[in-house]
Amino acid sequence: MKIDHLAIAVADLEAALTFYRDALGLEVERIEALANEGVKVAFLPLASGARIELVQPMQEDTGLVRWMNKHGPGMHHVCLAVPDIEAALSRLAAHGCELINPQPVTRKDGTRYAFIHPRSAFGVLVELYEKPS
Predict the structure, then answer these.
(1) What's the pTM value of the predicted model, to 2 decimals?
(2) Would you list the domain boundaries of the chain?
(3) Sheet arrangement for strand 39-45
(4) pLDDT digits over 51-108, tens only?
């Protein structure tokens, strides 16, 4: 298991890029609108192979907006890459973990993901990723 990305919730993607891209010097791999999730994401790779993902809501009725209304902008979740997401979810369920997504969601590129509720992860929202082979 390894860290795939750290997601940071931002209200204004371009403003956030003035820090992460311009001041820190991170390269922007791409910026993508994920309409079905209601977010716009900037992907900034790190030397470790992990990425920072800046996530801006594009509509008002998303979980990200509700989260930002409660917590403000900032660190949103950590994403762990797993080789078998269904096995990981089964293991978590067997340990009594609260799963936001009991079944993985599949993106257009074939990546499968699921979130674990922060109540089960000591206050941290955790996402699991299984990338297509």
Answers:
(1) 0.91
(2) 1-77, 82-133
(3) 30-34, 39-45, 51-57, 2-9, 74-81, 125-130, 112-116, 105-106
(4) 999 999 999 888 899 999 999 999 999 999 999 999 999 999 999 999 999 999 998 8
